[in-house]
């Protein structure tokens, strides 16, 4: 049952109570940021890029006042966050803009649409787009899927002259729901790891939860399109300069599909290889890696708190029983396995490294590299690799060095360039450009003019999306994540209540900072801490799908997906708020309801 619980330490220390610990100032800053963006864009009709940058600076300055940071430093934080966001989406959006225009002008999108409509019928065209997004978003990020399928929606509207909004929302429906529920997409993959859910189970149950939610989303798309239809608008000044081609002059189906299939196949192959390599978990310590269990127990038993061994023993991930097991000589195989299991558990601790504890240990190169990465989004296998390298360097006489480069890992590494979304979309853009040149018999100069026109429109989208990323980053830097954790500290839940709590936590995190992936990862960690070692009366996979569903709730202007949908679809900000935001809320609630029903009918307990 959901409610407040009091521990003995809280009774002894009144300041440990939940209410006394919560600092609501970050929430005030977030509200100021929300009001600022909505006022500037909707109230004053200011350009979205300017409104987002101004609001990001405003929130950053408020954070600076609260933390006594210099204003120059806070402005630098905005610029840095803008640059990081632009680096993540810049090339992808530019290539997507080229692909979209070239597929439309060459007739490739028209060929795909004609084939699909002939196969399914015009009335089921939106279902086909939804299924395409549903499948493609499993190995590929939602943004990329939307970029690739938008030309089909635009071409379909040109053919039918109706239902443009329905087509856009159908693509978004399929892409968003699997993006948050079905591995190997990073968000659900990390949630499964945090909650100790088998990846195969997460894939199966996540897909089962996603299907009815997607159907509900498709019905909502149809309703929205009938209630407030939105016409297709040109994305650029010369968006419609090429006349439509006769069917006999359209490119073949394979050539038409190449700009879509090429990046999906390349990215999917890399994702599959990396997932298989990660499942090997080569950074995990094996019993055969321990040179001498007696010496290991002796060293760890004598370790100080400020030593590498002491840091491992002090990990909050270990129980007292596990600490005792590590520091006691193992006498049989089962005890050796228990020692290794405890060490592997501790190696997942994000706080393992301490400069003081490892002052006399040479920093391994791989550890230094991984420490620069985004620690929130780091996969457990990479975190264990980072910490294992430190442990190997500290005790080479006790533990054999990890053997990371397995044949599968080498395969994944060899695909690193080809499966990189930026490179894969570059190849797709080149294919789309060549198709346009050949079909329209353009000179290289004429083709270059078309490409430049598409990039001019794409540049605006990059600026707005990056500004939205900077705004979301500034909201995160207010400390709103810690405030939410404090607000939910001391909660306990079981049964359906834990599913509701998991959904609420992820939803609040999503609204506050904009990223579904971050909302899932942080939310899963919070729920794991709330549950402790208590198992619900159903499989933990349902807790994971509740978290994933919650991360769709409340998508608005601090979410890059909002801007991708609005700008690539040609919608205004207010139109996106009336369509995209409630669509994702519908998917979120549908996922929660489906999760609750399945947890009661098919608990898969044990």
Question: TL;DR?
Answer:
Keywords: Cell membrane, Membrane, Transmembrane, Transmembrane helix, Transport. This protein is mainly alpha-helical and 606 residues long. The protein has helices at 8-12, 18-21, 25-43, 48-67, 71-106, 108-120, 125-136, 142-160, 164-181, 186-194, 199-227, 253-280, 293-301, 308-313, 320-326, 333-346, 365-371, 380-394, 407-414, 421-440, 444-477, 480-488, 496-513, 516-531, 541-550, 560-569, 573-601, and strands spanning 3-4, 491-492.
Q: How does the SSE layout of this entry go?
A:
Layout: E1 3-4, H1 8-12, H2 18-21, H3 25-43, H4 48-67, H5 71-106, H6 108-120, H7 125-136, H8 142-160, H9 164-181, H10 186-194, H11 199-227, H12 253-280, H13 293-301, H14 308-313, H15 320-326, H16 333-346, H17 365-371, H18 380-394, H19 407-414, H20 421-440, H21 444-477, H22 480-488, E2 491-492, H23 496-513, H24 516-531, H25 541-550, H26 560-569, H27 573-601
Antiparallel strand pairs: 1-2
């Amino acid at each position: 049952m959901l409610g407040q619980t009091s521990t003995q330490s809280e009774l002894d220390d009144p300041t440990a109570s939940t209410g006394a610990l919560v600092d609501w100032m970050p929430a005030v800053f977030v509200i100021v940021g929300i009001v600022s963006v909505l006022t500037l864009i909707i109230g004053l009709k200011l350009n979205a890029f300017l409104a987002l940058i101004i609001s990001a600076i405003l929130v950053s300055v408020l954070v600076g006042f609260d933390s006594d940071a210099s204003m120059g430093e806070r402005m630098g934080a905005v610029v840095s966050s803008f640059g990081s966001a632009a680096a993540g989406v810049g090339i992808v959006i530019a290539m997507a803009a080229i692909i979209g225009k070239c597929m439309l002008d060459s007739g490739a999108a028209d060929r795909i649409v004609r084939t699909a409509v002939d196969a399914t019928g015009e009335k089921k065209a939106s279902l086909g787009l939804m299924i395409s997004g549903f499948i493609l978003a499993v190995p590929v990020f939602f943004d990329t899927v939307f970029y690739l399928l938008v030309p089909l929606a635009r071409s379909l509207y040109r053919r039918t002259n109706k239902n443009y909004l329905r087509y856009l929302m159908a693509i978004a429906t399929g892409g968003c729901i699997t993006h948050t529920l079905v591995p190997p997409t990073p968000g659900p993959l990390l949630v499964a790891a945090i909650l100790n859910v088998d990846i195969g189970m997460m894939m199966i149950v996540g897909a089962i939860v996603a299907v009815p939610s997607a159907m509900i989303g498709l019905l909502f798309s149809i309703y929205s399109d009938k209630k407030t239809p939105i016409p297709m608008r040109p994305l650029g000044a010369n968006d419609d300069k090429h006349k439509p081609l006769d069917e006999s002059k359209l490119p073949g189906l394979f050539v038409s599909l190449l700009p879509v299939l090429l990046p999906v196949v390349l990215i999917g192959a890399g994702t599959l290889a990396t997932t298989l390599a990660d499942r090997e978990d080569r950074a995990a310590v094996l019993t055969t890696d321990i040179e001498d269990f007696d010496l290991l127990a002796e060293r760890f038993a004598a370790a100080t708190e400020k030593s590498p061994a002491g840091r491992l023993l002090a990990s909050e991930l270990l129980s007292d029983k596990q600490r005792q097991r590590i520091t006691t000589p193992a006498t049989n195989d089962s005890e050796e396995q228990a020692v290794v299991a405890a060490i592997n558990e501790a190696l997942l601790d994000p706080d393992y490294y301490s400069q003081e504890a490892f002052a006399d240990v040479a920093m391994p190169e791989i550890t230094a590299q991984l420490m620069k990465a985004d620690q929130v989004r780091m996969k457990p296998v990479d975190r264990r690799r980072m910490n294992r390298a430190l442990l190997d360097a500290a005790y080479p006489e006790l533990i054999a060095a990890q053997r990371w480069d397995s044949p599968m890992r080498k395969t994944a590494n060899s695909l690193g360039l080809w499966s990189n979304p930026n490179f894969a979309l570059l190849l797709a853009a080149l294919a789309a450009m060549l198709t346009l040149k050949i079909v329209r018999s353009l000179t290289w100069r004429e083709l270059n003019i078309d490409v430049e026109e598409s990039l001019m429109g794409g540049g605006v989208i990059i600026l707005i999306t990056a500004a939205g990323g900077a705004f979301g980053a500034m909201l995160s830097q207010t400390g709103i994540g810690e405030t939410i954790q404090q607000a939910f500290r001391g909660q306990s839940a079981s049964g359906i209540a834990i599913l509701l709590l998991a959904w609420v936590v992820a939803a609040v995190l999503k609204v506050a900072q904009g990223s579904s992936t971050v909302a899932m990862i942080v939310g899963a960690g919070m729920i794991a801490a709330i549950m402790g070692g208590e198992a619900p009366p159903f499989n933990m996979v349902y807790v994971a799908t509740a978290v994933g569903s919650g991360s769709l709730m409340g998508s608005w202007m601090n979410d890059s997906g909002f801007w991708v949908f609005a700008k690539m679809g040609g919608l205004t900000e207010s139109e996106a708020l009336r369509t995209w935001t409630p669509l994702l809320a519908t998917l979120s609630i549908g996922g929660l309801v489906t999760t609750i029903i399945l947890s009661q009918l098919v608990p898969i307990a044990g």
